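A brief tutorial aside. Many learners find it easier to grasp structure tokens once they have seen a single protein encoded end to end. The record that follows does exactly this for Toll-like receptor 2. Read the sequence first, then the structure, and try to relate runs of similar tokens to stretches of the chain.
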Amino acid sequence: MKHLTILTVLLFLSLIRGQMVNEDEGRPSCSRCDLHLSCNCSYSGFTSVPMVTDQALRLDLSFNNITMVTQDDLIGHSRLMVLNLHGNRLAVIHQSAFDSLWSLEELDLSDNQLNTLNHKWFSKLEVLQQLNLLDNPYRLRRLMFGGPDLKELRREDLSGVTHLDELTVHANNLTRYDSGTFGDIWPLGHVSLSLYGPFLTNTELAAALLNDVCYPETWITLVDFHLPNYVSVQLFKDTFRRMRNLSIRNLSLSDEATVSFLPLLDGIPLRSLSIVGLTLTGEGRWISANRTDLSSLDEFFISDVTIIDILKFAMTSDLTFLLQYQKKLSIVNSKMFLLSCYLTQTMVNTEYLDVSDNLLTDLTLPYMLCDSGEVLQNLRVLNISGNHLKSFSTMSRLVRKLTRLTHLDVSRTSYSSMPPSCTWPSTLRYLNISRAKLATITPCLPKSLEVLDLSYNDVKEFVLTLPVLRELHLSGNKFLRLPAGGHYPIWETLTIQSNTLNVFGLSDLQSYRRLENLEAGHNKFVCSCEFVTFLHSQLVGSGDVKITDGKQSYVCDSPFYLQGEAVSQVNLSIIQCRPVLFVSVSCGVAVFLGILVSVLLWRCHTFWYLKMTWAWLKAKRGSQRRWKQRNMDGSEPLLSFDAFVSYSEKDASWVEEFLVPALEEPSDTDSVNPTSPLTLCLHKRDFLPGHWIMDNIMNAIERSRRTVFVLSENFVQSDWCRYELDFSHFWLFNAGGNTAILILLEPLSKDNIPKRFCKLRKLMSSTTYLEWPQEEERRPEFCRSLRNALRGNDEQEN
Ligand SMILES: *[C@@H]1O[C@H](CO)[C@@H](O)[C@H](O)[C@H]1NC(C)=O
Ligand SMILES: *[C@@H]1O[C@H](CO)[C@@H](O)[C@H](O)[C@H]1NC(C)=O
Ligand SMILES: *[C@@H]1O[C@H](CO)[C@@H](O)[C@H](O)[C@H]1NC(C)=O
Ligand SMILES: *[C@@H]1O[C@H](CO)[C@@H](O)[C@H](O)[C@H]1NC(C)=O
Ligand SMILES: *[C@@H]1O[C@H](CO)[C@@H](O)[C@H](O)[C@H]1NC(C)=O
Ligand SMILES: *[C@@H]1O[C@H](CO)[C@@H](O)[C@H](O)[C@H]1NC(C)=O
Ligand SMILES: *[C@@H]1O[C@H](CO)[C@@H](O)[C@H](O)[C@H]1NC(C)=O
Ligand SMILES: *[C@@H]1O[C@H](CO)[C@@H](O)[C@H](O)[C@H]1NC(C)=O
Ligand SMILES: *[C@@H]1O[C@H](CO)[C@@H](O)[C@H](O)[C@H]1NC(C)=O
């Protein structure tokens, strides 16, 4: 059995299917294993991978109806050497389904329904030698394999692989190639071959391999192509005739090799040749190759040229043959300091010339552009980016005669100033002066410009009239504000990142009538309310201008507490943004709350409590004052009343008609123990007019031995205020011997008394009160009790 020596198989896929959930329970099992631990489970109608002993060395699961291999199906089969899944209906294989099959040498997945291949399936199969993927509906796009150990490629190795977008083979040490191995692969988009060894030692092999992949529509890339000596090109002649598009990376050529290799290109229909990384080991003696006909070459790109012996190197032949035909010529990053007028004058077809990243200067550039003579009459694009140029006026003078020039790239040069006026080809539409050192812009710039790149200079201001300008790039300069749009009626794109812009707003953008793309991130934004609000609205796309550089580029620089915060993440509060509105709203709210609180206070009688406290305090002060006064006078407190009667106005009639007569007139009802009349203090009768009521009450209480409260519904409901006043004062002087006597005019439950009369409630529960009997005959008894109570008979009170 032939073995594949492919070590690295990388299969790149257009699509990688998602993982499937594994339902492991109820798995069927298969025990048809023989003494050699070879298990034959084929033709058994399994719809999933059955359980088989871990010891199995070979497992044949062919011709079942298995549709998927899950992550766990083959776990533990570390000894398995051969796995055959041919002829199932496999469509899904978990990416780590084969991870435990360390010993697997042969894997047959042929004749299944695999739409996609996943290189991860094979990543742990380190000893896999044979893989069969035939007859699956997948479409392999890119195949890359090879390495230092790839020694042989045999006819069968790639059987079944047909058309590919990309084939990459690293075959630097290849010693055997069966002609036709790659022959079945067609169409073939791009082939990249590393054939270092074969080109040096076995050109037949290299020629045979190249012959199998060369088609006119295939792009060939040769990597690490080193020709130190004379090469016999006869073998390659036919192959190269079929090439249209050839790239070579890392090419090394001696003079002999160059002279023998160039005839290979003689007269062939090659259209595009690109060489990246050319090392010239010789001295430039290429004369005998000056006849090479490269007239079909449209595009020649060469970059990174290194000349080993630069001192000895002398280009003794002219390179006219090499450079004169191309439409598109690039000689990039090759330390070229001169391209002679003699050469450029022959380049009559050249439309695109890129000499970026070389050593051209203001002195050698006139040679290249033939100073005053005619040259490069068809040139459209000139790229002199990355050269040592300092005089912008020289450039303008030299390109003036290129009458078809549309694109000029003079970026990454050392221009630091511009003359006040210049002349340019009238066709010039694109000018790139980025990454120079310009500080000011003058009307030197051509009016015909559609695209102007001035990024990464030191420009602060831009006020030119450029009527057809569409794109302006100003990133990396020192702009403090956006340029006004008035002068650029068809402006579409503006990039002004990494400047010193603080803010911009709708008013700036309104002058840009046609602007579609704005990139203004990475500036030092001051996150004011207007700016934040404006940018939020722009970022959600409500404006005409589209901000295209991603909201993460807009970061606040100040105020300090927002530094580093993405503007889109900033939420400024209303205090910061609308102080006036905020103040008015908060005042409104405060007034409303005040009213609300007042209403609540009123509902909860807080004023009443306050009033009480105040009155109490005041009364206390007044009483203390009088106390002191009396102490000073040395007189005893004057008791002129037996009782102060506190009653409701509505109960006045009872007080006047019953209570006063009953107590103040000498009683004769009780003949056994005739009583002397009592003196009562009634506010109606005994208060001194003209005094403050409070003082009156004070006085009355002070001058009375007892205080009688006539309690009734009226008293509690309407006169509670007075009651409490009296009561507080009474309480104040309670200690001085004045005690309260409660008379209930009508049955009154403690629960009917408002809660805030806590003192009264307390008193009612601790003190016995006299009830006014409704029955006529019990009234004398009541009078007696009351009289006794007033006389100070303590037993009566309980
Ligand atoms: C397994 O058995 C089938 C017939 O049932 C046979 O065709 C096949 O060759 C056997 N596989 C192996 C590996 O012996
Ligand atoms: C597989 O399933 C199909 C239909 O689901 C059936 O016709 C066929 O016989 C099955 N094959 C085997 C080998 O069981
Ligand atoms: C493969 O080729 C390289 C040079 O490209 C050489 O250094 C190396 O020894 C070779 N490896 C083998 C295994 O022959
Ligand atoms: C060019 O090829 C040589 C020989 O294979 C190799 O040693 C060198 O690293 C390559 N250079 C680059 C830049 O790839
Ligand atoms: C050569 O191939 C490259 C890559 O496909 C392509 O970009 C280029 O245009 C082709 N050149 C020609 C002349 O066909
Ligand atoms: C090639 O070089 C020789 C010797 O310098 C010269 O006579 C001949 O004209 C050149 N041929 C071309 C096509 O330039
Ligand atoms: C000029 O060359 C530079 C560097 O190779 C490149 O970035 C730029 O795009 C080129 N300009 C044009 C107009 O092709
Ligand atoms: C201008 O040149 C610079 C550097 O070569 C390049 O990065 C940039 O893309 C060019 N600008 C435009 C608008 O092509
Ligand atoms: C601002 O609000 C957004 C969502 O409303 C939130 O994701 C973000 O974290 C907030 N930013 C700050 C700085 O609180």
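Self-check: Residues 332, 354, 356, 381, 383, 385, 407, 409 surround 2-acetamido-2-deoxy-beta-D-glucopyranose (ligand 7) (CB under 6 Å). If you spotted this yourself, you are ready for the next section.
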